[in-house]
């Protein structure tokens, strides 16, 4: 099984890779901007059972480079899964105060993941196989004043995945959208320090890997977020706007 991971230094992605290494003896192609961290992860995955680990140069924003990477990676041997995991919990106030930060958030959290999804969709369509797994967020389900720039990016990923699921319905290509709730990774270190309850990253990784194995269209992780977000999405606006959530 060959697995490509974009944003492979992500805590959630790393724990998914540990499962794939131990259970599937997977071949990995990993991309992340932090080379030293990535090398540590590659060595660890090898010890845990990975058959091979290749490191790809970080190219997160250039469409031509992303397209060339996807084509070359599939041409080198069939790819079973691409996990698109990179993301940045941008500060909402900073996005409002500085449009350059707002743009950066849109590029990291929305534009770049979409480019990777499209780049792999083309060779996957040609081969009629492969799973595109995208990490969205419960934050994408409804805009909130606390994080609507990040949330809108995740909402865009959700709608994009939905369109791709329609495109590939009935084919051998699967598109899986994972929507974690607050999870214990580097991204939420500040929330953890404030005492916020976070899901264990191992649980979210397990549920992500299971959803990808089943080719599930959308998965909330932990699953309790499915009913919670069902309620949150349906709160009437005149009530919602009075809540500080
Ligand atoms: N943790 C949560 O509560 C939570 C909840 C819902 C959704 N998510 C989503 O889950 C995914 C994985 O996040 P995580 O929780 O595993 O967090 P994490 O451990 O902080 O990982 C974030 C990943 O994104 C990469 N990244 C950040 N900014 C980047 C940039 N400008 N260019 C390239 N890569 C960049 C990071 O690279 P570096 O290692 O170089 O920083 C890292 O690989 C993200 O899409 C996140 O939005 C997380």
Give the cofactors and ligands. Answer: NADP nicotinamide-adenine-dinucleotide phosphate
**SS class:** alpha/beta
Strand order of the largest sheet: 3-2-1-4-5-6-7
Q: State the major sheet.
A: 7 strands, parallel
Please bin the fraction of helical residues.
40-55%
Order of helices and strands: EHEHEHEHHEHEHHEHH
Q: Which CATH architecture?
A: 3-Layer(aba) Sandwich
- From the alpha-carbon coordinates, what is the Rg to the nearest angstrom? 18 Å
In round numbers, the mean pLDDT is 98
* Tally of strands: 7
Supply the CATH class.
Answer: Alpha Beta
C-alpha end-to-end distance: 42 Å
CATH topology: Rossmann fold
Structure summary:
The protein is α/β, with parallel strands linked by helices and 245 residues long.
General description of the model:
With 245 residues, this protein is of the alpha/beta class. It has a single domain, classed as Rossmann fold. The protein contains 10 helices and 7 strands. It has helices at residues 11-24, 35-48, 63-75, 92-97, 99-127, 148-167, 189-193, 201-214, 225-234, 237-240, and strands at 2-6, 27-31, 52-56, 81-84, 130-135, 173-180, 218-221. Helix 6 (148-167) links the parallel strand 5 (130-135) and strand 6 (173-180). The longest helix is centred in the middle third of the chain and has 29 residues, at 99-127. The termini are far apart. The mean pLDDT is 98. Bound molecules: NADP nicotinamide-adenine-dinucleotide phosphate.
């Amino acid at each position: 099984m060959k697995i490509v991971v974009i944003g492979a230094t992500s805590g959630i992605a790393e724990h998914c890779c540990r499962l794939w290494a131990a259970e599937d003896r997977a071949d990995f192609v990993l991309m992340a901007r932090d080379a030293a961290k990535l090398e540590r992860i590659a060595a660890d995955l090898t010890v845990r059972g990975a058959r091979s680990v290749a490191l790809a140069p970080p190219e997160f924003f250039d469409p031509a480079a992303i397209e060339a990477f996807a084509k070359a990676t599939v041409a080198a041997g069939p790819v079973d899964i691409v996990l698109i995991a990179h993301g940045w919990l941008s500060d909402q106030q900073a996005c409002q105060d500085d449009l350059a930060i707002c743009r950066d958030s849109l590029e990291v959290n929305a534009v770049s993941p979409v480019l990777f999804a499209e780049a792999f969709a083309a060779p996957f369509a040609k081969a009629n196989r492969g799973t595109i797994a995208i990490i969205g967020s419960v934050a994408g389900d409804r805009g909130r004043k606390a994080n609507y720039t990040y949330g809108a990016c995740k909402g865009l990923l959700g709608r994009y995945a939905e369109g791709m699921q329609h495109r590939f319905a009935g084919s051998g290509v699967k598109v899986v959208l994972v929507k974690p709730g607050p999870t214990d990774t580097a991204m939420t270190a500040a929330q953890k320090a404030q005492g916020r309850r976070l899901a264990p990253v191992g649980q979210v990784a397990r549920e992500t890997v299971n959803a990808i194995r089943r080719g599930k269209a959308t998965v909330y992780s932990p699953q309790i977020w499915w009913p919670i977000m069902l309620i949150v999405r349906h709160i009437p606006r005149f009530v919602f706007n009075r809540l500080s959530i």
